Q: What sequence folds into this?
């Protein structure tokens, strides 16, 4: 599929999905979201790819959902549009996704960064849920993921005032993994993605699965889930290879089996 709003590139085992709608600060219209989910699902099935980086440009990761597409919509149309079904599909991507954020990550843009598994930010990044300023509220997970990431009182401040967090604040509150000068944010995210894609693919997959499980289960259920994934890895050839390579003092050769 040729994309109108995305540029997808591959570098060995890492894919970079760049949102490319710069004139409107990468506002996420519905066609763009259809493309984004299509691209991510294809990369998820691509056995050559171990990790996916989602990015925008220096000025904006994404300034939110496209407001022009929502202004005159009523609740019934919203209901039947069912646009968040696409977000549910993104949540089910099994490969790790890293958001490389520079500039604005607002509203749906902040939610997109947060649906990724890690966030590398440039010093100029600004995160926020400014929906309150246009009379609505986050709809793609903002109230839930932001609260889990930075805690109740800070999340309340962000969603109720619409104020943006600077990159340093976002780092301080635990929303982002690292903050780097603007010229390095994409390189840094890609380098992290290469590191992850050099690990045993089945273990990576089950690890992501287990960490995400912790968001919707009790500690008891989560520990049980972790344990089963741990046992399952002993059915993989990569477990044998990894442990054998350790005792033979050589680098393991992963097969993803
Ligand atoms: N939608 C549509 N167009 C946008 C958006 C947007 N979210 N953000 C910016 N633009 C457009 C502007 O209209 C402008 O277009 P034009 O040049 O034709 O006038 C262009 O991008 C440049 O923007 P500005 O001139 O405003 O640039 P500034 O540097 O002055 O300001 C801001 C940058 C602060 C980011 C400002 O543009 C802004 O406040 N944007 C809106 C941010 C916002 O409210 N986002 C939340 C949207 S609601 C939402 O995301 C709900 C999520 C629901 C689920 C997601 C489903 C996909």
A:
């Amino acid at each position: 599929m040729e994309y109108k709003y995305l540029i997808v590139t591959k570098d060995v085992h890492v894919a970079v999905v760049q949102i490319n709608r710069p004139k409107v600060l990468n506002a996420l219209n519905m066609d763009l979201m259809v493309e984004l989910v299509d691209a991510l699902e294809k990369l998820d099935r691509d056995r050559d790819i171990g990790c996916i980086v989602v990015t925008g440009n220096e000025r904006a990761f994404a300034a939110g959902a496209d407001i022009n597409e929502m202004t005159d919509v009523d609740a019934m149309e919203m209901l039947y549009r069912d646009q968040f079904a696409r977000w549910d599909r993104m949540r089910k991507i099994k490969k790790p996704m890293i958001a490389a954020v520079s500039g604005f990550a607002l509203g749906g843009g902040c939610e997109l960064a947060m649906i990724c598994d890690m966030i590398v930010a440039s010093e100029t990044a600004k995160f926020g849920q400014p929906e309150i300023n246009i009379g609505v509220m986050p709809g793609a997970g903002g109230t839930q993921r932001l609260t889990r990431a930075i805690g109740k009182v800070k999340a309340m401040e962000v969603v109720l005032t619409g104020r943006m967090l600077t990159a340093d604040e976002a780092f301080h509150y635990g929303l982002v993994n690292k903050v780097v000068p603007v010229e390095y944010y994409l390189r840094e995210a890609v380098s992290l993605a290469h590191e992850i894609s050099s690990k045993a693919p089945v273990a990576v997959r089950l690890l992501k699965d287990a960490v995400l499980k912790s968001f919707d289960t009790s500690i008891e259920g989560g520990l049980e889930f972790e344990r089963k994934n741990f046992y399952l890895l002993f059915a993989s050839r990569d477990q044998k290879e990894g442990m054998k390579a350790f005792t033979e003092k050589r680098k393991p050769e992963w097969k993803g089996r």
Observations:
- The mean pLDDT is 97.
- The two ends are 29 Å apart (CA to CA).
- The chain has two domains: 6-197, 201-247.
- Residues 24-25, 27-28, 33, 63-68, 83, 104, 106-108, 130-131, 134, 138-140 surround octanoyl-coenzyme A (CB under 6 Å).
